[in-house]
Write a structure and sequence with these properties.
- The complex is a heterodimer of chains A (290) and B (307).
- Helices cover 74% and strands 0% of the residues of chain A.
- Chain A has one domain: MetI-like (MetI-like fold), CATH 1.10.3720.
- The longest helix of chain A is centred in the last third of the chain and has 35 residues.
- Chain A is built from 13 helices and no strands.
- By secondary structure, chain A is mostly helical.
- Chain A is globular and about 65 Å long.
- Chain B has 307 residues and is mainly α.
- In chain B, helix 2 crosses helix 15 and helix 4 runs antiparallel to helix 12.
- Classes of the chains: A mainly alpha (290), B mainly alpha (307).
- Chains A and B meet through helix 1, helix 3, helix 4, helix 5 and helix 6 of A and helix 1, helix 2, helix 4, helix 5 and helix 6 of B.
Chain lengths: 290, 307
């Protein structure tokens, strides 16, 4: 055995990069990881920042404040927000029913929740469009009520609910499973009603998970393309989402415009990623402190 | 006598308390029905509709749409793409998780966040970055043209975009499992004289096989189904650079709905098989490995936008 650092001494007290270990292969495996990460992810992603830097600030602002681009940002953020809020209710309901109740076919329902993760987005997109078209299975029932989803923002929200709700279910479900029923018993024996127990006892415990699910579903919705393009109809100013806007600029060979819009989206994604990391770190801490 | 009464009262009280920690039956029925209604409307109906639309002109038209030349080349391209992207990301996943799970080093959590990056990026941007890298305005383009290498609007870019999009899948499943297994067994093997590779193949790998399989299943589903990123770099050349999802789009936009849904039904079957395989792995490994979004993952600091 090689000499090892005493367990109570943090490894960073030692001035080396890593804590000593007898396992081999740290530097080769880290080296390959960093090389592959750079080639596949970091270098390609950096092109957006490099190309954006080549634009003057005036030109950049001109591109991202063009009315059609602003409309697409408003639509993407708005529809994603509406879908993510809806997903919180649907996700908590599904997680609650799956964890707390017994009913026939529960295992199947639990497996089906992952369908939007496994189904290619283009397939989900054409299926939803066909269903909600005016002569489709669901659209036919909604048309007499004056509700037309296809080629309207409503259709976009429906597609975003479809791809986003599993995030809330899958973040809330494990927390609900771990939740101690004794606390609820205590609340009940102290005279709290069921609703009061849920609002005052259960909900605060699952709140970090609910928030994480909300942000995950929002982030996914913001960048979503495949399931939305078919049902949206892609009318400028009305149903044109940001990813489609980038696509349109590319097809017009307007690379600077596509780059500027992509830059804004990428920054938004990174902020959301930081937020998710922060939320998970927070909920991790909650678990430790009880 | 008094004792008996007290016991009865306590018993009744505890029964009442037990009844109160769940909801009244009508509420339970309403909540369950709402959940099932949503699942029916948003998951079962779309899935069933894919197959109904695919078969609505009969079996012959269905199979004819699948064995048609362009459909076959789309299937072939999808299989080739997955056959390159999945093994590459599998090797990367094993390498990265060895470095991250088995060693303590500075910047470890930052590295995990970087690995998760592709999940946070819109599929369209995931494709767009390769247009910027290899397109006619790029620094590389004069060199590529001089050597007559075609990457963009050809198979290499499709593969690259797919590798990017599926990059984190295996690594993020493996890291928490490998970390949870600890280092003791490897240390014992090494002290007993086994070499590094032998230890890895005989000790580490068997311990993470379910996590590995789980990651590969998810990686493969995404590799075969990716649409946005591939759509940007493919150029949509029928029969040449159209993968299955792109072929579905082409047929759909030509109002050839039956053929579009026929090809889509293959992808839907892939999704169903993926879900079944996922359930199987979860069941096989229950207790030893709880995939995704569990406490282990949270502790390991891994996070990100899934799929």
């Amino acid at each position: 055995m090689t000499k090892s650092i005493p367990a109570n001494e943090p490894y960073y007290m030692n001035l080396s990069l890593k804590k000593q270990s007898i396992l081999p292969g740290f530097f080769p495996s880290l080296g390959i990881t960093l090389l592959y990460l750079s080639l596949i992810v970091l270098i390609p992603l950096s092109t957006i920042f490099l190309r954006s830097a080549a634009l003057t600030f005036g030109r950049f602002m001109e591109i991202v404040t063009a009315p059609r681009v602003v409309a697409s940002f408003a639509l993407s953020f708005g529809a994603s927000l509406v879908a993510a809020v809806t997903n919180v209710f649907i996700g908590v309901l599904l997680a609650w029913v799956l964890v707390r109740y017994k009913f026939p076919g529960k295992g199947l329902v639990d497996a089906l929740v992952d369908l939007p993760f496994a189904l290619p987005t283009a397939v989900g997109g054409i299926a939803l469009t066909t269903l909600y078209a005016e002569n489709g299975w669901i659209g036919r029932l909604l048309a007499p009520l004056g509700i037309i989803a296809v080629f309207n923002p409503l259709g976009i929200v429906i597609a975003l609910i479809f791809i986003g709700f599993p995030f809330v279910v899958r973040t809330v479900q494990p927390v609900l499973l771990e939740l101690d029923v004794e606390i609820e018993e205590a609340a009940a024996s102290l005279g709290a009603g069921r609703v009061q127990t849920f609002v005052r006892v259960v909900f605060p415990s699952i709140l970090p998970a609910v928030l994480t699910g909300f942000v995950l579903s929002f982030a996914r919705a913001l960048g979503e393309y495949g399931s939305v393009v078919f049902i949206a109809g892609n009318m400028p100013m009305k149903t044109e989402i940001v990813p489609l806007m980038i696509m349109t600029k590319l097809e017009q060979f307007d690379i600077p415009a596509a780059t500027a819009i992509a830059f804004v989206m990428l920054v938004a994604s990174f902020i959301l990623l930081l937020l998710i990391n922060f939320l998970q770190w927070k909920s991790g801490k909650n678990l430790v402190s009880g | 006598m008094n004792d008996a009464i007290k016991q009865t009262i306590a018993f009744v009280k505890s029964k009442k308390a037990a009844a109160r920690i769940t909801e009244p039956l009508p509420v339970r029925i309403i909540l369950t029905s709402l959940a099932l209604l949503f699942v029916g409307l948003f998951l079962v109906v779309p899935l069933v509709s894919v197959f109904t639309m695919a078969f609505n002109k009969g079996m012959e038209v269905y199979f004819a749409s699948l064995v048609e030349q362009d459909a076959l080349s789309a299937i072939k391209l999808t299989l080739i793409t997955a056959a390159i992207a999945v093994p590459l990301n599998l090797l990367f996943g094993l390498t990265a998780s060895w470095a991250i799970a088995k060693f303590e080093f500075r910047g470890k959590y930052f590295l995990i966040s970087l690995i998760d990056l592709p999940f946070a990026v819109s599929p369209v941007i995931s494709g767009f970055i390769f247009v910027l890298l290899f397109g006619s305005h790029s620094l590389l383009s004069p060199w590529l043209e001089a050597h007559d290498i075609k990457i963009l609007f050809a198979v290499p870019a499709i593969v690259l975009a797919t590798v990017f999009v599926t990059f984190p899948f295996v690594a993020r499943e493996l890291i928490p499992v490998m970390a949870a297994n600890g280092n003791e067994e490897e240390e014992v093997a090494l002290t007993l004289g086994a070499g590094g590779w032998k230890t890895f193949f005989r000790v580490t790998l068997p311990g993470v096989k379910w996590g590995l399989l789980y990651g590969v299943i998810l990686c493969n589903a995404r590799a075969m189904g990716e649409f946005g990123a591939v759509s940007v770099v493919s150029g949509h050349i029928r029969g040449e650079t159209a993968t299955m999802p792109l072929h579905v789009e082409i047929l759909y936009n030509e109002y050839n709905f039956t053929a579009a849904f026929a090809v889509a039904s293959l992808l839907a079957m892939l999704a169903v098989v993926t879900l079944a395989a996922k359930k199987f792995v979860e069941w096989k490994s229950s207790g030893r490995f709880t995939p995704q979004l569990n406490t282990e993952r949270r502790e390991s600091g891994s996070s990100g936008v899934d799929l």
